[in-house]
Amino acid sequence: MERKLKFDEIGYWSEIKLDIIREYASAYSKILSGQKSPELYHIYIDAFAGAGIHVSKTTGGFVPGSPVNALSVYPQFKEYHFIDLDELKIDSLENVTETREDVFTYHGDCNTVLQEKVFQRVRYEDYRRALCILDPYGLHLNWEVIYEAGHMRSVDIFLNFPVAAINRNVLWKNPDGVSRRQIERMNIFWGDASWRNIAYSESPQLQLFGERSEEKVSNEDVAEAFRTRLRNVAGFKNVPKPIAMRNTRNAVVYYLFFASQKQFAGNIVEDIFRKYSTRKG
């Protein structure tokens, strides 16, 4: 049976994320387009691009995805690179962008595509820069990609840190019950196994036989540790405090991180984060 494309349904928190990215992309493109000495060639990258259109859970209407939003930014980016593992979603994007010679689409794993095909187009020494959106559906992003983006010095990133998925699959109250597969997936996302010592602390309460148990630290503590890795390991010089995206029950679904080499970029994003931090659906 032929599979049909089903547009992703998104909550209001994802709509806020799209607004944040669109607002920064507009400021980013305006600033880089005005750079004349030297002139900079700037591109837009979406590693989990989707179909270009979503369905709002709040209104039931269609919502433009980040690729479509990026294409409407003016001044325009010089190139657009859209990646997705779902062939039907890439087909949808190609239908939307078929008349655009500045759009490149890729059906495949972004961890491979970014490192083998896309990042080479934004080398710092070639006066090229990029805004890269890393919005994984769960633990489907490799730390190697984040690390390379940081050390290239030419890439700004927005990163979905999927804390709800991490808690559901890995950070259990009893870590001994977590499967080896999920632990390995977390190691790949985090970059090593150091998350284990960060995510759990020794409980002050004694167990039945006098041993101390472990207890999980807060989501905020885990996110702050990842923020430290973005700075100290990946090499991004400016990483503002992320904005927490909450669902209708006020639970944190994920943290939206931004990372850059430039202080002014971080300042712009901090202003945008403040603007949207109290917005409700």
Tell me what the structure shows.
The structure is a single chain. The chain has helices at residues 12-33, 66-71, 87-97, 110-118, 143-152, 163-169, 180-190, 195-199, 219-232, 263-276; strands spanning 9-10, 41-46, 53-56, 62-64, 79-84, 103-107, 128-134, 155-161, 200-206, 212-216, 243-246, 252-259. With 281 residues, the protein is α/β, with parallel strands linked by helices. The chain has a single domain (9-177, 219-276), classed as Rossmann fold (3-Layer(aba) Sandwich), CATH 3.40.50. A seven-stranded mixed β-sheet has the order 6-5-2-7-8-12-11, sandwiched between helices. A three-stranded mixed β-sheet has the order 1-3-4. A two-stranded antiparallel ribbon has the order 9-10. Helix 1 runs antiparallel to helix 10. It is globular, with a radius of gyration of 20 Å. The two termini are 38 Å apart. 36% of the residues are buried. Residues 208-212 have low confidence and may be disordered.
CATH fold name: Rossmann fold
Radius of gyration: 20 Å
**Distance between the amino and carboxyl termini:** 38 Å
> How many strands, what sense, and barrel or not for the largest sheet?
7 strands, mixed
The largest sheet has its strands arranged as 6-5-2-7-8-12-11
**What fraction of residues sit in β-strands?**
15-25%
Q: What is the number of independent domains?
A: 1
**Poorly predicted parts:** 208-212
Shape: globular
- Quickly name the level 1 CATH class: Alpha Beta
Output the number of helix runs: 10
Listing every helix as H and every strand as E from the N terminus to the C terminus, the arrangement reads: EHEEEHEHEHEHEHHHEEHEEH
How many strand units? 12
Mean pLDDT: 92
Class computed from helices, strands and strand pairing: alpha/beta
Helix content: 25-40%
CATH architecture: 3-Layer(aba) Sandwich
Q: Please, what is the CATH homologous superfamily? A: Vaccinia Virus protein VP39
